[in-house]
Prior knowledge:
Distance between the termini: 8 Å
Low-confidence stretches: none
CATH architecture: Alpha-Beta Barrel
Order of helices and strands: EHEHEEHHHHHEHEHEH
CATH superfamily: Metal-dependent hydrolases
Largest sheet: 7 strands, mixed
CATH class: Alpha Beta
Bound molecules: adenosine monophosphate, zinc ion, fe (iii) ion
Amino acid sequence: MLSSTAKIDLHSHSTRSDGKGSPEQVVTEAVAAGLDVIALTDHDTTSGWAEGSETAKRLGIGFIAGIEVTTRASVINDEGEGQRFSVHMLAYLPDPKNVELQSELTDSSESRRVRLKKITERLSEDYDIDWDAVEVELASGKTAGRPAVADAMIKRGIIKAREEFFEFVFPGSKYYEPNRGVPETYEAIRLIRRAGGVPVIAHPMARGNGPTPGQPMPVAHFESMIEAGLGGFEAYHRDVPEHVTQWLEKMAFEHDLVLTGSSDYHGTGKPNRLGERLTSAANLEKIISQATGFAAQL
Ligand code: AMP
Ligand code: ZN
Ligand code: FE
Ligand code: FE
């Protein structure tokens, strides 16, 4: 049983995707930060689970195995126009041996590399950067993401920090290329459920990717996700604006969904600190009670 005062952080990244520390380091740092439970949620991979869970067992901290699944939503907005945007879907405790899930993750990872090559090519027209330099950053099987290009440009002295990179390589900028080979959002939700996992949308409408206060909220899109099997929202995250958090709280209450709070820790790759947002024991218990794919380690 979890104590009601347990400190629980359900979103972190290691070197298996774009975090700066190994799974062992992330879990070790979680202990140092005073956490009782840490979830490792690398982008589109389960490859860090074994090392993370072994370290957690050795150090006496709870471990929740997760994935941050990259998905693409295709929705029709209120004006009747089709819109596409990226949605990160946290998957807690799915079965890592689920063939359908793993094959989707493999496809996503391959498509991420192709996409990163395109971004790198476009950048190479204006900056002294090339794919060889980026590949060095993608050591043995880690999930390819924009931070790897940022790190290569930092090494070349073109920029000083990852944050700077995201000021000119964002959706809509001339260097950007979306992840096209990833599952559609509603499909991903159903797939995570079929694999016994619990889908929780990561940082919903973060960083201005949503209505401003007073504008209508995307009710239909959220209701479709809930119908597909969405389990909850990461309502407490540094990039989720306050008015969105309040709307998510209301939606979660109405639909009996889980609310989580997490740091989205990337080590030194991002300012986010472990434990800066937390999930309540009751909400974690709700996630665990729905999961049938993989055991929580408490
Ligand atoms: P990608 O998966 O290739 O689209 O890259 C997105 C990743 O970059 C996410 O995991 C973010 O955590 C990371 N990221 C986004 N914005 C920033 C930022 N301003 N500074 C550092 N990392 C960022
Ligand atoms: Zn990341
Ligand atoms: Fe994310
Ligand atoms: Fe993340």
